[in-house]
Amino acid sequence: MDVLQRLARLLDRPKFPWKNLIVGFSVGQYLFEGFLSLRQYRVLQQKKPPKALAGEVSQEVFDKSQAYGRAKAQFGFFSSLYGQAQNIGFIYYDILPKLWAVTGLWLTKYAPTQYRGEIVHTLVFFFTFNIITTVMNLPISYYSTFVLEEKFGFNKQTVKLWVSDMLKGQALMVAFGAPLLSAFLAIIQKTGNSFFYYLWMFGVGVQVFAITIYPIAILPLFNKLSPLKEGSLKTGVEGLAKRLDFPLKELYVIDGSKRSAHSNAYFYGLPWKKHIVIYDTLIEKSETEEVVAVLSHELGHWSLSHTTKLFGIAQFHMFYLFALFSVFINNRSLYQSFGFHKEFPIIIGFILFSDALAPMDTIVKLLMNILSRRYEFQADEFAVKLGYSKELAKSLIKLQIQNLSTMDADWLYASYHFSHPILPERLGALGWYGDEKAASGKQMDGEKPLKAADREL
Q1: Which residues contact 273 (CB under 8 A, 6 or more apart)?
Q2: Which of 120, 280, 384, 387 has its CA 20 to 30 A from that of 355?
């Protein structure tokens, strides 16, 4: 506590140029990520697939994948520029203090006296700000769904469904966001300088609650979950779960094709009660053993405690964020730099603190992606030990083709952005060199599997 308080006093320096510093962080991150995207764009202009995929992916599929990657990259250049312009505009034109003042006037004019405190004011400010940013980003969302994804055959949404999803999302934000944000503010107001301990415990509770309530109350609003029908797939998955002592409660198929042609599979739930969800698109386009192989990889994450470790890391990350926030929450020079001279709202302090933390977030993102890729290799190895090497390799290739995923990547771009290794790396680690070689389990002379360590920082 003493260290945090001394740091708080050190950083609260009158006329310190916080605005210039935060703008500099924002622009610096934008330029760095733009530089990485340019490096990746050069890779997306290659005409031939990587050597490891030459016998697995046709030239037509590779060309379409590259075109899809370039289209997403070009869209990314524009959307990131648009987002950066928004951010700079909000800062330059003092949108935050102006919006805080306007919402305060609304409460003074229309709300009873007992509803004019900081918590109610923050809720009105937050939801007004959210509506503004949502409307401003509608063109980006529309183009992504109905132009880019539509062009490459992935979009299955109608405009009606798109609007419905957006309205449901906003309604959920009000329903869950209002009490959560109110509790967040109340904890800080009532617990003094030690608020971050209580805020962290509250955050852990919210996450456990979300894990429990999401599949019951939220997911059904957007997708339909149906029990997997009896058959070889259900028998295979249940057999895999029993073999690993995985606490499988329910096995579902989700109507992912309602919105997209992309495929996936995942599990969720509490430690003693897990649910497996398989996309209908994965079942439709894969053999039974290939789907089981994909799930053997996913259950590898569970068996190797990857999900538990990542949850633990997330809790530590949340704790240090809240502890650092206690350093900035009363920093008058920070507030004043952004136009708050008489009022010092907690929510504004948290927003500005988050912006000031951008360089550290960049480093955390890099390290977490490196760890995530390592876990992906370990889960692949787990599936191999279960005897699914060939089936997993085939499934990964099919998913790559179906999703038109990136076939190759610039090493620096991948290290920063990718939570999963690229396909050639995974196939190399699986020892996959086509049906004949995989069946023999031997590598050809001079061939060496690619490994993540060869490309990670």
Answers
A1: 247, 249
A2: 120
